[in-house]
User: Which sequence fits this backbone?
């Protein structure tokens, strides 16, 4: 069971609630007319929040899977709710992504939002608190509170400042997510009572519930489904994705950036944080189902994206496809797949966030998002073209950029699970390249056919300023992903060990006999065999991969899963 | 002597007649009277039970019910009168400003 | 049976809240005679003072942990009763606060309004404390008769009178049904005392006795009318729409809560032995109320009617707590009632904030563009709607969480799923108003009241709703401990859970 390591300063709380304070400040102490003050105030708040979150990276100990910067205060003792925050290798990157993208989202709204600024920036800042809290919370009650709070400002962002059928999209977004999350709430309550029955300990503590609770296979299955619905709608996985194109298309630019960059990650984060470790048996059992949905999502998203006339809709469907990838990586249930999925979450946040920013830029200039309205822009706007090109290549996974590393790891993971999974995944990559390149070609190359595009202004300083950090991260992750993989390494390692994937099991047939009792064994032995804090380096972080993405397949050792854990019989000798 | 059960049946029948009246009649005053009939059915039942159980509680209860029924009739008639002033009708089918 | 006249006078300090209130009502009615027509709000303020005293007195008794049985088992002064009494007093105080602005608008210059409201309060307070069929019936009628009058208080408005008539006819009818059920219970067990009936039922196997089942069904039907559960809900939308708005607000909260209190006393103490029978009926009522309430609410254009259907749905949620039948379940009823007071009264107060002489304010479209005119009012309304829909960080979330937790713990998973899905549906119609307020353009000028008492009451309700959501600990504890006196009789082990 991971420990909670405290830190001398309550950085998490400050990071999480600074935007909330800022929102209060804007709501209470500014006047509607002070537009500049509100704008720059909001930006400064979000920027300061990003700066405050930097020490998290600096002081983060990448050698452990424990929860760091933990804070615990009593909140509602009578039902065992505590204010418990902490981050591990899974959440730290998402927290950083959130603070970065929030600051960028504020900056990119300066020109686009011209009315009701006050409410707008209040909503953005509230949203930031909600998102950060969701990633930081280690108490189910707290998690759920943040998870739902976040919906409200997003609803307003889409509904008030959106375009097109904004009312429809806003309520659709809210209702879809809510339907999923209320079922998840029942799942949470069931876990709560199961844990209470098993231990007599009344708590919503996620860590305790995850690592102390032994659930029978059937119950795991149903609870997995309850959580699955909540998260799958958020991701969104294939049959639950219909809210996404509408919400993305009709949201204002900043809304789309946040939605694509962070909100969707909450679904995948939920799978990693809850579904995999709490329901390992059910996760393994449902791998084919999950992979099937992911693969359908990848291919369907790509195909539909190809058919879109509207740039924003195209990017929205590309999200469905990319998140299918992430899910595929996660449910490969090996270190490579999960690390890849996790990294791809960040990558998608950066590249799709950037794509939405780019769409926002052209939309602000031309007020149309139809691809057919554009063409030959590369002659007119060179800086924009460069930025767009890099982002596009990042999105389709060109080596040297961030997308490649994530997709590559996912492919390795998928291949280890089954060559069939990898085959479908590859086809998704090909399709992805097709629709993005085609989009780029239609918009940027050729002659300027539409006279309206002749006077198009290139990126201004503000736009360059908010694009550059994203581009830097794209190159950084693409060329030297080691620090990122290092950070998540031990946590991923631990997670895989816990889930103890059947691909390992299937090879080591001899352990089949212990199938029945394994769920319990894993939980109990895992704790003993790996004394807390023992550094366990993920094999993913092999130097070849980190340094040079084009290097040959690293020798991935599946033994990592069974590392020091002979009792589960999972060391896949047979595979080698 | 008449057996207690007869009284119980009488109470039940009065109650049923009242209930059916409330549901079928359309004049507000008749409905009010039917409600009173129901209450009186209950009173008969209560007193019959009190007799059978040799317990005063039921009779006390019945007296309270009679009192309340008087209050109820007063309030009900007041409402009916002010309705009649407003609408000049007592037919509940015609009292339909608010959709049912 | 010979009764001696040597009746010892019980310690009256235990019913001091009721005594204070009774004296106060008489005083208010008298003083009213000497107050000129245009100063009738003084009567309201005077009533508020009396209610404050009542509240303090109940609070003192509650904190002292009184647990007494008075008048030969007719009344109980226990945590359960005192908890409800305090809730009722808060309800009425808020109702008076919002009436102070509303009554002059409708040109109701009658001080009796407040007097009758206080009588209704008295009825509700006694109802929560009653442990005998006679006292339950009497207090129920005291409450109902007062509210019949209040519903028709705008004599010139045919809608108000019509609402009063409908409420009266159906209310009296349901009281009759309830009463017949009580008579049968008395006939079976030979006593009107709830504990006495309970022990009779415990000693005899009555689960196949037709009279017992009939009594139970009649009681359920009567109470279902009072709490407005489907299929006994037909009167609700009409009466809520027609009655003066503060009275509607009061009706949607107070009598409902009182009916729940009496219902719990009867079903958990007197006829808990036939629990398997009534539990499945309540299960059905809960599902029907939630589903029909929420689905029909979607189609409404009048905010009052919409809130009426929403209150039907909320009765369904509360019934889940009773069906679950464990300690959390019963406590969740108490907690939810408390939360519901603030959020539902708050929502109705918003209508009063907007209404003018021309009657504006009870249609959803009347709220169009409110966010631009007064962002604070719109934000307050959003808080109430979030709470009604059960979204954190509001009291509604904690209340619902508690209810669904009870259902999950008692293994009523199906009921919990129906419940949560319904609460998601409810968001749709609540947010139609939010949509109108924030996302549609203003058709014309919008006049908001700035009546200080109304604004103050609204602020209190918003803050209470948020506070209950952010720091519900003490209230959860209070609900748990208030439920404790009934638990042994209901056969529930009073552990921590």
Assistant:
């Amino acid at each position: 069971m991971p420990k909670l390591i405290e830190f001398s300063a309550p950085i998490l709380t400050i990071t999480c609630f600074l935007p909330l304070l800022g929102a209060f400040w804007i709501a209470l102490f500014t006047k509607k007319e002070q537009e500049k003050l509100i704008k720059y105030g909001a930006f400064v708040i979000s920027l300061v929040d990003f700066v405050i979150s930097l020490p998290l990276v600096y002081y983060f100990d990448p050698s452990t899977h424990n929860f760091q910067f933990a804070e615990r205060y009593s909140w509602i003792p009578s039902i065992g709710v505590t204010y418990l925050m902490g981050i591990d290798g899974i959440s730290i990157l998402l927290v950083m992504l959130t603070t970065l993208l929030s600051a960028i989202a504020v900056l990119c709204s300066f020109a686009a939002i011209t009315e009701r600024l006050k409410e707008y920036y209040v909503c953005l800042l509230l949203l930031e608190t909600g998102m950060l809290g969701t990633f930081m919370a280690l108490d189910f009650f707290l998690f759920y509170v943040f998870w739902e709070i976040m919906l409200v400002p997003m609803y307003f962002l889409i509904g008030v400042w959106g375009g097109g059928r904004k009312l429809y999209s806003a309520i659709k977004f809210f209702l879809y997510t809510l339907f999923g999350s209320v079922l998840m709430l029942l799942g949470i309550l069931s876990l709560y009572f199961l844990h209470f029955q098993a231990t007599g300990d009344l708590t919503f503590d996620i860590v305790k519930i995850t690592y102390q609770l032994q659930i029978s296979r059937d119950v795991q299955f149903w609870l997995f489904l309850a959580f699955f619905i909540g998260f799958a709608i958020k991701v969104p996985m294939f049959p639950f994705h219909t809210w996404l194109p509408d919400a993305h298309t009709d949201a204002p630019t900043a809304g789309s950036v946040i939605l694509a960059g962070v909100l969707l990650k909450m679904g995948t984060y939920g799978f990693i944080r809850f579904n995999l470790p709490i329901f390992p048996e059910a996760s393994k059992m449902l791998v084919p189902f999950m992979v099937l949905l992911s693969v359908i999502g990848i291919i369907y998203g790509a195909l539909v994206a190809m058919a879109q006339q509207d740039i924003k809709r195209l990017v929205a469907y590309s999200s469905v496809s990319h998140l299918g990838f992430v899910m595929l990586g996660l449910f490969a249930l090996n270190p490579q797949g999960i690390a890849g999925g996790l990294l791809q979450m960040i990558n998608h946040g950066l590249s799709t966030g950037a794509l939405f920013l780019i769409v926002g830029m052209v939309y602000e200039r031309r007020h149309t998002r139809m691809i057919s309205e554009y063409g030959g822009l590369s002659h007119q706007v060179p800086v924009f073209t460069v930025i767009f090109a890099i982002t596009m290549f990042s999105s389709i996974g060109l080596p040297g950029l961030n997308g490649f590393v994530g997709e590559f790891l996912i492919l390795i993971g998928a291949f280890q699970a089954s060559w069939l999974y990898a085959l479908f995944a590859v086809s998704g990559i090909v399709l992805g390249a097709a629709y993005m390149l085609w989009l780029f070609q239609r918009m940027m190359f050729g002659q300027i056919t539409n006279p309206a595009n002749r006077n198009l202004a290139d990126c201004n300083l503000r736009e360059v300023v908010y694009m550059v950090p994203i581009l830097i991260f794209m190159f950084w992750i693409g060329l030297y992903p080691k620090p990122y993989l290092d950070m998540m390494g031990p946590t991923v390692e631990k997670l895989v060990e816990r889930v103890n994937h059947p691909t390992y099991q299937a090879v080591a047939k001899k352990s089949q006999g212990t199938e029945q009792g394994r769920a319990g064994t894993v939980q109990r032995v895992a704790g003993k065999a790996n004394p807390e804090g023992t550094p366990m380096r993920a094999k993913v972080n092999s130097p070849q991969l980190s340094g040079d993405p084009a290097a040959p397949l690293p020798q991935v050792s599946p033994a990592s899963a069974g590392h020091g854990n002979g009792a589960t019989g999972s060391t896949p000798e047979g595979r080698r | 002597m008449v057996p207690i059960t007869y009284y119980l049946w009488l109470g039940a029948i009065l109650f049923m007649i009242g209930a059916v009246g409330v549901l079928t009649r359309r004049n507000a005053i008749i409905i009010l009277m039917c409600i009173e009939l129901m209450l009186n059915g209950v009173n008969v039942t209560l007193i019959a039970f009190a007799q059978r159980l040799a317990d005063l509680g039921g009779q006390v209860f019945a007296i309270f019910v009679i009192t309340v029924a008087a209050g109820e009739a007063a309030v009900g008639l007041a409402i009916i009168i002010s309705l009649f002033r407003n609408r000049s009708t007592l037919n509940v089918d015609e009292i339909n400003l608010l959709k049912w | 049976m010979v009764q001696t006249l040597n009746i010892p006078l019980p310690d009256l300090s235990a019913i001091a809240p009721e005594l204070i209130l009774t004296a106060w009502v008489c005083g208010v009615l008298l003083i009213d005679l000497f107050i000129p027509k245009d100063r009738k709000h003084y009567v309201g303020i005077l009533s508020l003072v009396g209610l404050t005293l009542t509240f303090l007195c109940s609070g003192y008794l509650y904190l002292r942990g009184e647990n007494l049985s008075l008048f030969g088992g007719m009344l109980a002064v226990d945590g359960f009763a005192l908890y409800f009494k305090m809730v009722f007093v808060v309800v009425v105080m808020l109702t008076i606060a919002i009436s102070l602005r509303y009554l002059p608008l409708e040109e109701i210059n009658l001080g009796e309004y407040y007097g009758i409201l206080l009588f209704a309060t008295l009825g509700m307070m006694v109802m929560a404390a009653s442990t005998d069929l006679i006292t339950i019936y009497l207090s129920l009628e005291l409450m109902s008769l007062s509210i019949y009058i209040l519903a028709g208080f705008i004599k010139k408005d045919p809608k108000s009178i019509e609402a009063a008539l409908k409420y009266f006819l159906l209310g009296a009818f349901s009281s009759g049904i309830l009463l017949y059920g009580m008579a049968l219970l008395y006939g079976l067990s030979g006593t009107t005392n709830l504990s006495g009936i309970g022990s009779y039922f415990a000693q005899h196997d009555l689960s196949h006795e037709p009279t017992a089942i009939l009594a139970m069904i009649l009681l359920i039907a009567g109470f279902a009318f009072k709490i407005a559960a489907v299929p006994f809900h037909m009167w609700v939308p009409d009466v809520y729409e027609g009655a003066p708005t503060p009275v509607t607000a009061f009706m949607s909260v107070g009598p409902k809560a009182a009916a729940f209190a009496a219902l719990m006393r009867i079903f958990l103490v007197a006829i808990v032995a036939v629990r398997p029978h009534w539990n499945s009926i309540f299960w059905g009522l809960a599902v029907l109320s939630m589903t029909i309430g929420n689905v029909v609410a979607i189609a409404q254009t009048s905010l009052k009617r919409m809130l009426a259907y929403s209150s039907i749905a909320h009765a369904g949620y509360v019934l889940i707590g009773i069906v679950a039948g464990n300690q959390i379940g019963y406590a969740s009823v108490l907690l939810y009632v408390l939360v519901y007071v603030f959020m539902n009264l708050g929502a109705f107060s918003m209508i009063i904030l907007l209404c003018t002489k021309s009657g504006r304010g009870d249609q959803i479209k009347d709220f169009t563009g409110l966010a631009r005119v007064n962002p604070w009012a719109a934000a307050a309304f959003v808080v109430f709607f979030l709470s009604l829909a059960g979204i954190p960080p509001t009291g509604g979330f904690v209340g619902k969480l508690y209810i669904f937790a009870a259902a999950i713990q008692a293994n009523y998973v199906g009921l919990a799923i129906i419940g949560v899905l319904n609460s998601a549906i409810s968001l749709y119609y609540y947010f139609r108003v939010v949509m109108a307020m924030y996302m549609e353009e203003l058709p014309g000028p919008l006049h908001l009241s700035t009546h200080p008492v109304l604004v103050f009451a609204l602020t209190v309700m918003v803050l209470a709703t948020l506070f209950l959501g952010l720091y519900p600990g003490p209230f959860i504890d209070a609900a748990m401990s208030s439920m404790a006196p009934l638990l042994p009789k209901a056969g529930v082990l009073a552990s921590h859970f």
Summary: DSSP finds three helices and no strands in chain B. Chains B and A do not touch (no CB pair under 8 Å). The helical segments of chain B are 4-24, 28-53, 57-87.
